[in-house]
Specification:
The structure holds 2 protein chains of 2 kinds. By secondary structure, chain A is of the alpha+beta class. Chain A has 5 helices and 6 strands, in the order βββαβββαααα. Chain A has 2 domains: 88 residues, Roll (Ubiquitin-like (UB roll)), CATH 3.10.20.30; 72 residues, DNA polymerase, domain 1 (Orthogonal Bundle), CATH 1.10.150. In chain A, strands 1, 2, 3, 4, 5 and 6 form a 6-stranded mixed β-sheet that branches. The termini of chain A are far apart. Chain B is an alpha+beta fold. Chain B is globular, with a radius of gyration of 27 Å. The chains are: A alpha+beta, B alpha+beta. At the A-B interface, helix 2, helix 3, helix 4 and helix 5 of A face helix 1 and helix 17 of B.
Chain lengths: 170, 802
C-alpha cells in the first residue's frame, strides 16, 4: 500500500481509503500524519479543533467507526478503511442534529472551541444510551475540557437532546 | 415580564449556529495561498545575558525563508505606557524559561521546527529570582533597570481618612496573612496569528486577541508602519479570560516575517507555549488588619499586598492597585489604607485573569470577616447584611456606587441555601461558607490617556430592512456580538436575525478598547443604543406624516412602525427605511460611549472607578474527607446583581462559568515552578495543570438579581468576572465550618487540609497559611481625605503629603 516519496523528510507516503462524513475519500499521506492533521489540513475540515495535540483536552474528538477518538493521537495511517465522522458530518444536509439544536438553545456553546468535540462525544453517548442519567453524561464528557460554561448547560443540552430524540422515535 | 421584546429574552446567540456546526473560523483555521509557518526559539534558562544569536545555519536549510532575532525588532512595547519593557524577541537578556529569542519562517512546521535546532545562542547565566521572598531578599541581579527598587517593580501606598483613629475606635482588631496562588486562563484555543503583507505596503493580522485596538497600536509602533496601513482582525475566538489581552511577541514576529518574506506567515502556539505566554493570576501575599465594632461595623481597614509579577510588567501596575481598590465597595469602610507592591521574578509574566487583581484582596477580606464574625459571636451573613454600602454613595477611596442589589443577593442565597439551618449545624465533614463581592462594569479610564470614546458603533440601514452594526468589540465567547444585535433589535423593533454584526476589524469598525475589565456590555451597549436611537429618530420623522402621528408616538416592534394609538395602521420597517432614505439620503448613524470622569483625583485614582458595580453573594456547601483531606464542593447558591439581563442565558452562562473558574482556583489550579530546576513550570500541560472536569464541577443554583443602573444600557451591569470572586472565600469558609481548620491560602489542596487537621490533633494552631509579611521600603503615602470630610461629595480631593 505504500509508495516511495522523494526529497528530504519522510520518504514514504501511504495510500488511504476512508469514509469521512459519509463520503469515500482516497488520498496519500506520510506515515506520521495524525488524523487531526489529515482532517484539518488535507480535507479542510477545520470544525475539528485542537487544544493541546497531546490527548489532554478532548477538543479534537471525532468518531472513528462510531467511537469517540482523539484525532490528535490517532495516526491517519491507522484509519485505513475506517468511517470517520466530524462535526461537519452531524447535520444531515441543512437539518441539524438534535444535539446541535439543543446546544444552540441552552447556551452550551460560549466560545465554541470545545463544542465540536463535546457534540461528538454526546452523539455517541446517545447512540449507545438513549436516555442517559446525569452521572452517565458527566462521565461521558469528563475527558473534554471546557473553560467557559462550567459544563452545566452542556449537560442540560445533552439531556434535552435525549428527550427530543426519544420524542422523535415515538 | 417587562416592556421589552428582545432585552431579557432567550433568543439564540447570533454566532451559535456557526459554532455548533463547525463553520466558525478561528485564527488557526485560516489558510492563505503561499502561507509560511513560524516557530519560535525559546529560552531554556530562566535568567541570562544574551551574548550572541546566530541564525545563519538555520537559513541554509531548504524550505526556510527567513529567520529573525531581537536585532530585527529593536523597539520595546508593553500594554501599559508605564511598562514598555518587552521586546518581541529578546535582545540582551532572557528573563524566563520560554522567553522567545529567535523566529523562523518556513514552508512547513516540520522544517521550521528543524531550523530552530540550528540557531546558535550564547548565554551567560544569571542567578534567577524565583519567588516573592527571593525578589525582596535579593535586589540584584535586577530583572529590569526601571524597577522602582531592586527587583520590586512598583509600590503604592495610599491612605483614605485616618487609619490609626479608625483602629482606636474599634472594639476588636484582627490581623491575618493570606496567600492566593497563581493560576492561568487555560482558554481551550491556543493563541494563533496569521500575518499578510501586501505589495502596496499594507499589513493585515488575524489574531486570537481580546484587544485588537491595542495590538493595532503596538504593531504600528514596533514595525514602524503608519497605523493607517495596519489592520487587525479577530476571527472567532476560542476563549480568553484575560489571557489574550496583551499584545504578544508572536503577533509582532509573524508580522515582521511576512514583511520580510512577502508571504503570509502563520503561527499557532503549542499548549506549552501558551503556558509561557501566561499573563495569569498573580500569586499574591496579602496581609489585613481590620478594626470592628462589637456589631461588626468596620472602623478601619489596612491591606498590604505583594504580587509575584513574573518577568515583565504587563498589566501589573494596574493589577497591583486592583488588589486594594475594590475592598471598599461592598461594606462601609470609613478609614482605609492600602500598601501594594509587585515584584519581578524569572517566571512567565502575570497579568489580568478574570477578576484582575481583585480576587486576591477579596479572598482575604471575606475569610477575615468569617473569623471576625466568629470572634464576635455573630452570624457571618448577618454581619455582612448589617454593614452593606449604600446605593448612590461614594466610598472612602472615591468610588461612585450607583445601584447595588447586594442585600437582595445575600438574602436570596441565605434563604435558598438553608444557611440558617446549616451553618455550624451540619455533621463533622460537611459545612457551608458565605462570601460577597463586587466588580467593575468597565474601567473608568483607558489604558492610554486620551479624551476619545471608549466604544464606538456605526449602524447602516439597508433598503431591504436589514441593519448592519459595526463595532470594534471582540466576542471572546461571552456573547458581546449578540448583545449588540439584541440592543439594536430592541430599539428598532426588528428580529435579531435581521441585524448583521461586524466586529473586531480595525479597518472597518469604530474603536472599542477591547474585551477586558467587564466593560463590553455597558460600553458597547450604550454606544449601540445611541446609534440605534438616532436611526429610529430618522425613520420616525420620515414616516410620521404618512402615519398621521407625531414621531415620538411611533412604536417600533415586530418589524413594523406604527402609532401607539393605532397598531393596525403603520408600515413595515423596510418601508420606513425606504421613506427615510428617500428623504435624507443614505442612512447611517453613529453612537459612542465614554465613562464619567473618576470622582477622585489622587495618584492611583485611575484604577477602581467604573460607571457601575455589579454585586454578588454566594453560599458554598462542601464535604471534607478528614482521612484524605479531599474537599468536594457539593453545591453553590449564587445571586448576581447584573442590573438588567440583556440576554438571560448568557448571564447565567457567565455566572456558572465564573463559579467553575472560581472552584478551580479554590481547590485545584495552581501555576508553580520548580525552584531547584531552572524555574520550569511544574505542569505546562492540561493534564498536569488541574482544571475541573465535568466530574469535579459542583451543582450551581443561580439567581439573576436585577437592580437597574442608570449608567448601563437598559440598566445592565457586568456579569463576566464578578461571580468568580466570592467562590474561593466561600469554599474556604465552608471548609472551616466542616472540619474547623483555617486554610488561609488557595488552592486548598488535600495536603493543606490534612496538615491543618494534623496540627489540630497535635494541639497546634489548626491553620495553613503564610506568616507575617516582610517590611518593604514603602514609598511616601498618598493621603486623601474621604468624601465625607470634604465640603461636598463631588468636591475635589485635597492631596496631602506627609
Amino acid at each position: 500500500m505504500s509508495e516511495r516519496g522523494g526529497g528530504v523528510g519522510p520518504a514514504e507516503t501511504l495510500r488511504l481509503r476512508l469514509v469521512v462524513n459519509h463520503r469515500p475519500v482516497e488520498l496519500l499521506v506520510p506515515p506520521h500524519r495524525t488524523l487531526l492533521e489529515l482532517l484539518r489540513e488535507e480535507l479542510g475540515l477545520t470544525g475539528t479543533k485542537h487544544g493541546c495535540e497531546l490527548g489532554e483536552c478532548g477538543a479534537c474528538t471525532v468518531l472513528v467507526e462510531g467511537r469517540p477518538e482523539l484525532a490528535c493521537l490517532r495516526l491517519a495511517a491507522s484509519c485505513d478503511g475506517a468511517e470517520v465522522t466530524t462535526v461537519e458530518g452531524l447535520a444531515r444536509g441543512p437539518r441539524l442534529d438534535p444535539l446541535q439544536e439543543t446546544f444552540a438553545d441552552t447556551g452550551a456553546a460560549q466560545c465554541g472551541y470545545c463544542t465540536p468535540g463535546m457534540l461528538l462525544v454526546a452523539h455517541e453517548l446517545l447512540e449507545r444510551t438513549p436516555r442517559p442519567s446525569r452521572e452517565e453524561i458527566r462521565l461521558a464528557i469528563s475527558g473534554n475540557l471546557c473553560r467557559c460554561t462550567g459544563y452545566l448547560r452542556i449537560i442540560e443540552a445533552i439531556e434535552r437532546a435525549a428527550e427530543r430524540r426519544a420524542g422523535a422515535d415515538v | 415580564m417587562s416592556e421589552h421584546r428582545v432585552i431579557g429574552g432567550s433568543s439564540r446567540r447570533v454566532d451559535v449556529a456557526d459554532k455548533v456546526t463547525g463553520r466558525a473560523l478561528y485564527a488557526d483555521d485560516l489558510v492563505l495561498p503561499r502561507m509560511l509557518h513560524c516557530k519560535l526559539l525559546r529560552s531554556r534558562v530562566p535568567h541570562a545575558e544574551l551574548l550572541r544569536v546566530d541564525v545563519s545555519a538555520a537559513l541554509e536549510i531548504p524550505g526556510v525563508l527567513a529567520a529573525i532575532t531581537g536585532a530585527d525588532l529593536p523597539i520595546p512595547y508593553g500594554i501599559l505606557p508605564v511598562s514598555q519593557d518587552e521586546h518581541a524577541l529578546c535582545r540582551d537578556r532572557v528573563r524566563f524559561v520560554g522567553d522567545p529569542i529567535a523566529a523562523v519562517a518556513a514552508e512547513d512546521e516540520e522544517t521550521a521546527t528543524a531550523a530552530l535546532a540550528r540557531i546558535a545562542v550564547e548565554l551567560r547565566p544569571l542567578d534567577p529570582v524565583g519567588s516573592i521572598e527571593d525578589a525582596l531578599a535579593r535586589p540584584e541581579p535586577r530583572l529590569h533597570q526601571y524597577a522602582q527598587h531592586g527587583n520590586i517593580h512598583r509600590m503604592v501606598s495610599q491612605e483614605f481618612g485616618d487609619l490609626e483613629q479608625g483602629l482606636a475606635e474599634a472594639d476588636y482588631v484582627r490581623e491575618d496573612s493570606f496567600f492566593y496562588g497563581g493560576s492561568t486562563h487555560l482558554a481551550l484555543e491556543q493563541h494563533a496569528a496569521l500575518a499578510d503583507w501586501s505589495p502596496d505596503g499594507r499589513l493585515t493580522l488575524w489574531s486570537s486577541t481580546q484587544t485588537p485596538h491595542y495590538v493595532h497600536r503596538v504593531l504600528a509602533r514596533v514595525l514602524e508602519l503608519p497605523a493607517a496601513r495596519v489592520r487587525v482582525i479577530v476571527p472567532a475566538l476560542g476563549g480568553g479570560f484575560g489571557g489574550k489581552t496583551d499584545p504578544f511577541n508572536h503577533e509582532v514576529v509573524v508580522a515582521k516575517l511576512a514583511m520580510r518574506t512577502g508571504r503570509p506567515v502563520k503561527i499557532c502556539l503549542t499548549r506549552e507555549e501558551v503556558f509561557h505566554c501566561h499573563r495569569g493570576r498573580h500569586p499574591t501575599r496579602i496581609w489585613m488588619r481590620t478594626g470592628v465594632k462589637r456589631d461588626g461595623a468596620i472602623t478601619a481597614m489596612h491591606v498590604k499586598t505583594v504580587l509575584d509579577g513574573g518577568a515583565y510588567g504587563s498589566y501589573g501596575a494596574a493589577s497591583t492597585l486592583y488588589t486594594g481598590a475594590l475592598q471598599t465597595v461592598t461594606y462601609r469602610v470609613p478609614h482605609y489604607r492600602f500598601d501594594g507592591a509587585r515584584v519581578f521574578t524569572n517566571k512567565p509574566p502575570c497579568g489580568p485573569k478574570r477578576g484582575h487583581g481583585t480576587p486576591q484582596g477579596r479572598f482575604a477580606l471575606e475569610v477575615q470577616l468569617d473569623k471576625i464574625a466568629e470572634a464576635l459571636g455573630l452570624d457571618p451573613a448577618d454581619l455582612r447584611l448589617r454593614h452593606l454600602v449604600s446605593p448612590d454613595s461614594l466610598t472612602a477611596n472615591y468610588l461612585r456606587i450607583g445601584s447595588t442589589g447586594l442585600r437582595q443577593c445575600l438574602e436570596t442565597v441565605v434563604e435558598r441555601s438553608g444557611w440558617r439551618e446549616k451553618h455550624g449545624q451540619l455533621p463533622f465533614g460537611r459545612g457551608v461558607g458565605v462570601a460577597c463581592s463586587s466588580y467593575l462594569s468597565g474601567a473608568g479610564v483607558a489604558i492610554y490617556w486620551n479624551d476619545m470614546p471608549h466604544s464606538g458603533v456605526m449602524l447602516k440601514l439597508d433598503r431591504g430592512g436589514g441593519v448592519a452594526v459595526y463595532c470594534g468589540s471582540t466576542d471572546v465567547g461571552q456573547g458581546s456580538d449578540s448583545v449588540l444585535a439584541f440592543v439594536v433589535a430592541e430599539v428598532l423593533g426588528v428580529p435579531p436575525g435581521d441585524v448583521r454584526v461586524v466586529t473586531a476589524d480595525t479597518d472597518l469598525t469604530p474603536v472599542d478598547l477591547g474585551s477586558y475589565s467587564s466593560r463590553v456590555t455597558l460600553m458597547t451597549g450604550n454606544a449601540a443604543l445611541q446609534a440605534a436611537e438616532r436611526a429610529r429618530e430618522l425613520l420616525a420623522s420620515a414616516v410620521a406624516g404618512k402615519l398621521e402621528a407625531r414621531p415620538e408616538e411611533l412604536v417600533f416592534a415586530e418589524g413594523r412602525v406604527f402609532p401607539a394609538s393605532d397598531p393596525d395602521t403603520g408600515v413595515s420597517f423596510a418601508e420606513a427605511v425606504v421613506a427615510a432614505e428617500s428623504r435624507f439620503g443614505t442612512l447611517a448613524t453613529v453612537g459612542h460611549y465614554a465613562p464619567p470622569a473618576p470622582a477622585g483625583k489622587f495618584k492611583g485614582s485611575g484604577v477602581g472607578p467604573s460607571p457601575a458595580y455589579s454585586y454578588t453573594a454566594a453560599v458554598a456547601e462542601v464535604t471534607v474527607d478528614p482521612e484524605t483531606g479531599m474537599v468536594r464542593a457539593d453545591k453553590v447558591w449564587i445571586a448576581h446583581d447584573v442590573g438588567r439581563a440583556i440576554h438571560r442565558p448568557s448571564v447565567v452562562g457567565q455566572i456558572e462559568g465564573s463559579v467553575y473558574m472560581g472552584l478551580g482556583e479554590a481547590l485545584f489550579e495552581e501555576t508553580s515552578h520548580r525552584a531547584a530546576h531552572n524555574l520550569v513550570p511544574v505542569a505546562p500541560s492540561m493534564l498536569g495543570y488541574k482544571s475541573p472536569t465535568a466530574l469535579d464541577m459542583c451543582e450551581v443554583e443561580s439567581f439573576v438579581i436585577e437592580d437597574p443602573d442608570p449608567q448601563g444600557p437598559f440598566g445592565a451591569k457586568e456579569v463576566g468576572q464578578g461571580p468568580l470572586l466570592p467562590i474561593p472565600p466561600a469554599i474556604v469558609n465552608a471548609i472551616y465550618d466542616a472540619v474547623g481548620v483555617r486554610i488561609d491560602e488557595v488552592p486548598a489542596t488535600p495536603d493543606k487540609v490534612l496538615w491543618a487537621l494534623l496540627a489540630r490533633e497535635q494541639g497546634r494552631e489548626p491553620r495553613v497559611g503564610p506568616g507575617a509579611l516582610a517590611e518593604l521600603p514603602w514609598p511616601e503615602t498618598v493621603r486623601v481625605r474621604p468624601p465625607w470630610e470634604t465640603a461636598g461629595a463631588s468636591a475635589p480631593v485635597r492631596k496631602e503629603q506627609d
